[in-house]
Amino acid sequence: MLAALAIALVALGFAVAGWLRPTHERPSYPQSGDARTNLCASYTVVHQAVISNTHLANPGGKDPSGQLAVAANARLALLGGGAYLRDSLNAQTAPPADLAEAVNSLAATIEQLGVNYLANAKNDAQAPLRHDLDSEIATLKKLCE
User: Cβ-count burial of 34 within 10 angstroms (0-12 exposed, 13-18 middle, 19+ buried)?
Assistant: First the structure.
């Protein structure tokens, strides 16, 4: 019984120490002081992640596990990329309005694509989003030149 009490007190000590000294820090987004540079850097990373993960081939041919893994990576890239872009945008103090609008629009589109893929949406629902995505990428590419 004494050992259980000692373990409980040690656990309580760790809990109090963890509560008083949080170790979680905010994610680090590109921060050069220039919102345009920061947002364009975030866009570039997300664009690369989405392109590379939505164009993966199943290494196992028709193996269902491989197909599921490839699909999961694509959905993660879309959903995570959208969230990363929004967080990066929110971390900027004075982003140019046209760039902020373009980043927010791209984030919304890729997140919607990801959610639709999770919901097994038909191509009719995805095709307009893919078309929007192409024009949003072209806009951001131009803004970030």
Answer: middle
Burial of residue 19, with CB atoms counted within 10 A of its CB: 0-12 exposed, 13-18 middle, 19 or more buried = exposed
- For 10-53, what is each residue's pLDDT tens digit? 554 555 555 556 555 555 555 556 899 999 999 999 999 999 98
Query: Lowest mean pLDDT: which of 30-34, 69-73, 138-142?
Result: 30-34
Could you tell me the pTM of the whole model?
0.76
Look up residue 62 and give its DSSP letter. Answer: T
| Rounded-to-integer distance, Cα 99 and Cα 111, Å | 18
Alpha-helical segments (H) within 21-63:
35-54
